[in-house]
Amino acid sequence: MTLPTTGPAFYFPSIEKRYGRPINEWIDLIRSSDLTKHKQLVDWLKAEYGVGHGHATALVGYTLAGHTSWQPTDRDPS
């Protein structure tokens, strides 16, 4: 039995659909930024890429937690 996705990754399918970029591209973008603080990165994603606050928070939180990639197999099948 597959457990449902929780935490920031719960938003990843909708982020990919809405903004047209794979999650790993967002992670790489965040990791390549000179910014290091959560709020700075969230504000940057919102201003530069038009990402909504909740989605930006999920992406930044996941990345700053040390994740370097997200596996598409982690997606909720619905």
Structural write-up:
The radius of gyration is 12 Å and the shape is globular. With 78 residues, it is mainly alpha-helical. The protein has one domain. The mean pLDDT is 88. The longest helix has 12 residues. Helix content is 54%, strand content 0%. The chain is built from four helices and no strands. It holds the Pfam family DUF4287. This is DUF4287 domain-containing protein. InterPro entries: DUF4287. It comes from Streptacidiphilus fuscans.
SSE inventory with pairings:
Layout: H1 12-19, H2 23-32, H3 38-49, H4 53-64
Give short descriptive properties of this protein.
78 residues; 0% strand; mainly alpha
- Order of helical and strand elements: HHHH
- pLDDT < 50 stretches: none
Count of individual helical segments: 4
Largest sheet: none
Q: Shape, please?
A: globular
Number of domains: 1
Assembly classification: single chain
Q: Between the first and last Cα atoms, what is the distance in angstroms?
A: 15 Å
Strand content: under 5%
Q: Supply the helix-strand structural class.
A: mainly alpha
Helix content estimate: 40-55%
Based on CA atoms alone, the radius of gyration comes out at 12 Å
- Give the overall pLDDT as a whole number: 88
Number of separate strands: 0
